[in-house]
Specification:
Elements lengths: L1 H16 L77 E6 L9 E6 L10 E3 L15 E3 L7 E6 L2 E2 L4 E2 L5 E6 L4 E6 L12 E5 L9 E5 L22 E5 L10 E8 L13 E5 L13 E6 L2
Antiparallel strand pairs: 1-2, 3-5, 4-5, 6-7, 8-9, 10-11, 12-13, 13-15, 14-15
Amino acid sequence: MGRLTRTLVHLSTFAGLAVLLVGCSREPKGTTAGIETTSTATPTGSDSETSTGNPTGATTSTATSEPTPTTTMKDDIGGIGGQCNLFAQDCPPDQKCTAWNEDGGPFPNGTRCVPVDLNPALPGEDCLVPGKFGDGIDNCDKGSICLDLENTGKATCVAYCTGTMDAPVCPHAEDRCAFLFEPTVPVCFSKCDPLLQDCSPGETCVPNEAALGAPHFVCMPRVFPQLGKYGDSCYALSGCDPGNLCIFGENLPSCKTPYCCSVWCDLDSPDSCKEFDETLSCVPWFEPGAATPGYENVGICGIML
């Protein structure tokens, strides 16, 4: 079991780092950049996050104004530092708590209250970002964000999780809370099966946390589509083609970069990894006895170090 444990550690190290542009683990998993540790990722939570549905049907328009901060700093900030709590949405009635980059960068590192668009788009609807994604300004309704990961100016509204970091809730029974960026931004995506890749076109099924042993799998927008096959370099959790996942490069024999795409595998068919390289094995995603029900056979092709 020692060699498998070490492999799990390496893959967990990849998972905490390979998502620099799209996601990060919501809490330390016993790994550090460039340092091998002695612990492995342990899944948490259950497959039962539900609540009532959201209304639909509103049309969209573009948000145009930069807000003035209206809330005080909080100790309990829902997984990301800033002026308000993404889980609680505790801004004034005409504003929403949203993620933004307080240093002017492209990806969120804090929260603030911003005006809600007069004709807001709802989760699942197309949306617009008038500036860059890191500004935190979009035309999505309160409790949601325009997830423009590639800074194209348009994307789809995605609901923030409610509840708490330890007990997140999503608006639909089939959704699961995913934890993106660092600090954490909690957003809801449809659950999926990485072995079936049962997501919509333009999406790929990936872990809801960037760590080996993440308890759920979600349909996330595919980003950086120029690459994505087995062995290709990758830069984000959802930066590989459906059926693949961005993993730590040292776990793939042909990878010459820090992170490369590998292939999901079924533990009942471990030899499937040999199609790509004879040195690959189907490494279990979960530790023994810790699998989320229904995902007991999920594995990822890698080298047993």
